[in-house]
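User: Can you help me understand a structure? I only have the sequence.
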Amino acid sequence: MKFLKEPPRFLFFTGKGGVGKTSIACATAIHLSEAGHRVLLVSTDPASNVGQVFGVTIGNHITPVPAVERLSALEIDPLEVAQRYRDRIVGPVRGLLPDDVVRSIEEQLSGACTTEIAAFDEFTSLLTDSVLTAAFDHIIFDTAPTGHTIRMLQLPGAWSDFLDAGKGDSSCLGPLAGLQKQREQYKAAVDALADPLRTRLILVARAQQAALREVARTSEELAAIGIAQQYLVINGVFPRCEAAEDALALAIIAREQEALSAIPDQLKLLPSDQVLLKPFNLVGLDALRQLFAEATTPLGVQYEEPFTLHVPPLSSLVDALAADGRGLVMFMGKGGVGKTTLAAALAVALAHRGLPVHLTTSDPAAHLTETLKGTMEGLTVSRIDPEAETERYRREVLKSKGTALDAEGRALLEEDLRSPCTEEVAVFQAFSRIISEADQKFVVMDTAPTGHTLLLLDATGAYHREFARQTRSDGLQDVMPMMQMQNPQQTKVLLVTLAETTPVLEALNLQQELRRAGIEPWAWIINNSVAAASTTSTLLRQRAQNELNEIESVADQHASRYAVVPLLKDEPTGVERLARLTV
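Assistant: Let's start by predicting it. Here is the structure, written out as tokens:
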């Protein structure tokens, strides 16, 4: 593997959710540790599962991995570090400032932006604190999905600019004094990220056109902020030797080769590796040690005979949803599980029944237009564009609140609106505006990956308070979006997963978080199931066998209702093919 040759001190693995960053990061950590290097593996993903991959409890402290000499791991828990951050900011002023001022500070520190800042505080210390990391030769970062990663890596510069221009004593980030003392640490982090002798970025993708376009955009954006030492790893490539005469396997190979032949120019310039698709789950040391091997069949695996799987189809869920005639339908789940495709398929099915439908996404990485490849009567399609919504929000606030301010006050307001939190507030405002339509029609929402979705839901109240603070008016409906999502008569939440250990665990964790927020998921969808498809490929049959336990756990333990969508020979893009998913 090219990316493993002469590795620098810091290695970052990034890419769209679901492409296998965690597995490759863990396998890299094992490889370097067993080669004699002292390695720290760090997850900065809000939906981390590094501990689950190794079968040990890790948490938010450096923990040795018992089965691998010289390897330690750390999972940065965003919620835990956010609370510590709030305590650090609010603690010194509690009892010294009036109670209403303290409450205002706490409100400003209650949103998703603060959670991200707190996690970044932990992240930068690992890049810059030589005492903390002196015991390690390499630090490997299993980062969050693409949009979150770009935002996190851009924040050092954004915060530095924000602090340099700071004129007030607080912002949506909390008191500036809480950030000023980190200025040197942030600058050191930026320097470390941009130094090719210290940092290597490994872009992980699948052999799919959309995934490769996505990772090309990521490459350009990261290069623009100074991270030039980049490698490409294309994961899960179907081995030609396993195709035989199986129609499904041959179709998969043809799709992958077409995608690889049309790889974006930006990626052609990068050193690249391919990791072959394996027939086994990438959990446990034995599996991880074989990830980079060219052989696809581990010693001792016995292939099962073909079998017929009887499971509920996606059409069974469509029938039940259509009976309501209207409402909000939200697709949630880990990135890379196919939420965009399934949301589009459901929207097409409802529109075919003559029902008005608004299909939208709050995922910065969504590809609704590419998925639909056309239009149809009764179906409206939109995307919440963070940049456009932020500019719209700035204009609204300056018009409603800024006109009554003097020059100095308006300058302070403009400063506040340049903070990293403003985009989150603006996106929430658009989110609220769209879901209000669910009283008259179906609103089908393809949401962002799990971590972002949870932060959005957790921060609903904080967003409303921030919007009201900026505009000095409610600006939103009396019934808040969280209340609408908690009403099962108005909202149906569909959790999307794959029939694999990690995605099912992610969906289960999301279900638990939703329940704590008073939201009960309506159904689960297991997507791209090999077990529900027809195949004679030995590799695919083994992967199908591996799926059975996960499908059974969803059906018997996790879901009140569920459906299974088979892996298809033809990629489900375009209205006609999407409609076939719900027949």
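Now, to help you interpret it: The mean pLDDT is 81. The longest strand covers residues 199-206. Let me know which part you'd like to focus on.
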